[in-house]
Amino acid sequence: MAEHPAYPVGLRLTGRRVVVIGGGQVAQRRLPALIAAGADVLLVSPEATPSVEAMADAGEITWERRVYTLGDLADAWYALIATGDPDANAAASAEAERRRVWCVRSDNADAATAWTPATGHSEGVTVAVLTTDAKGRDPRHTAAIRDAVVEGLRDGTLVAPHHRTRTAGVALVGGGPGDPDLITVRGRRLLAEADVVIADRLGPRDLLAELPPHVEVIDAAKIPYGRYMAQEAINNALIEHARQGKSVVRLKGGDPYVFGRGMEELQALAEAGIACTVVPGISSSISVPGAAGIPVTHRGVAHEFTVVSGHVAPDDERSLVDWPSLAKLTGTLVVLMGVDKIGKIAETLIAHGKPAGTPVALVQEGTTASQRRVDATLETVAETVRTQEVRPPAVIVIGEVVTVGPRTSA
Ligand SMILES: C[S@@+](CC[C@H](N)C(=O)[O-])C[C@H]1O[C@@H](n2cnc3c(N)ncnc32)[C@H](O)[C@@H]1O
């Protein structure tokens, strides 16, 4: 048979019978996509891996616990043959040929009438990669090409312009704690597609340097606010740029809804009738302690963690934090924006019953090249912050979890 390239096609399998012969690793890898395609899957196999068994238990496939017998492919539109028995594979594949059922064979690509491409998904598109002929088949190479394309589309390093009209609007993107690798895939893609980026001081600022020259990058802290409050001026800038038909990303540190005023911005945009999407981010409240080797919970040590803002002192009438109650909790207390007020906070916690020797860690500029960890106790923390010159941004962790990890990271 002359060697021709395979003809690529997308099978629409909803409600159509697909017969899978063999319930091992190959079936385990292929079944999720067949189920996702809505296929009516019949598995014929005396045994199956625990994952395949779970799919049968969940009613996602029908499993007949027996070996292949002639006639199994009678109603099939498509077949996957993957038993460990070459004779059974050959017999099933001969039946498929006779019945004109396209058939994939795990043991012999040459004898198969169909090949499974390496697939991945991004932005509502399926990327499928096939080698052109059986001799040149190199599954690792096709998988690597698939990964390169899908990853590139996801992280914005491969830009495929959308030809449908892009809706102007705003995306509130949580950028994570600072390390540029800790933004979400969706956040990074939106950033790569933006016309305007309005960024905070905190978050992955290194990513801004990678943006193409036509992207207007605005430092939120530098937006002039004259007769407005700073936040109002930021809201106005978002609205103004979106009204010009631009794609605007509001890049925020951590998660937009953790002390991030995300909802205020979303409400202002909604009032102005501007479409807004919110992309969650990795909050510094968990990731920064983690980066310094501190888990916010630990079995047998802390079954809860509470994240509070320390931007106003406990005796300030604007404070909404119930510090006396927090002093009674046995779990971990994570304080954001608390460096300036830590003396008062520690005093209040001790006054309401928290032991003075409770361990405290301050993690400054977590996940960045300048990350620094300073340890103290509730009793010594105010003095330690002064002598060690701890500066914002820092996450303060109070509780026994501070001492559970090996002190390797600083
Ligand atoms: C206005 S809050 C914003 C929190 C953010 N939305 C989040 O989810 O992480 C700013 C505070 O977050 C903490 N923070 C944010 N990034 C940090 C980092 N990389 N290292 C240490 N603290 C950080 C500090 O306590 C800082 O004062």
From TrEMBL:
Enzyme class, first EC level, given as a word: transferase
Give the metabolic or biological pathway: Porphyrin-containing compound metabolism; siroheme biosynthesis; sirohydrochlorin from precorrin-2: step 1/1
GO terms assigned for molecular function: uroporphyrin-III C-methyltransferase activity
EC number per UniProt: 2.1.1.107
Q: Which residues form the Tetrapyrrole methylase domain?
A: 170-381
One GO biological-process annotation of the entry reads: methylation
Keywords from the UniProt entry: Cobalamin biosynthesis, Lyase, Methyltransferase, Multifunctional enzyme, NAD, Oxidoreductase, Porphyrin biosynthesis, S-adenosyl-L-methionine, Transferase
Source taxon at top rank: Bacteria
- A Pfam family (short name) is TP_methylase
> Catalytic activity annotated for this protein?
precorrin-2 + NAD(+) = sirohydrochlorin + NADH + 2 H(+)
NCBIfam families, per the entry: cobA_cysG_Cterm, cysG_Nterm, PRK06136.1
| Protein family (similarity comment) | Belongs to the precorrin methyltransferase family.
Protein's name according to its UniProt entry? Uroporphyrinogen-III C-methyltransferase
What species is this protein from? Streptomyces galilaeus
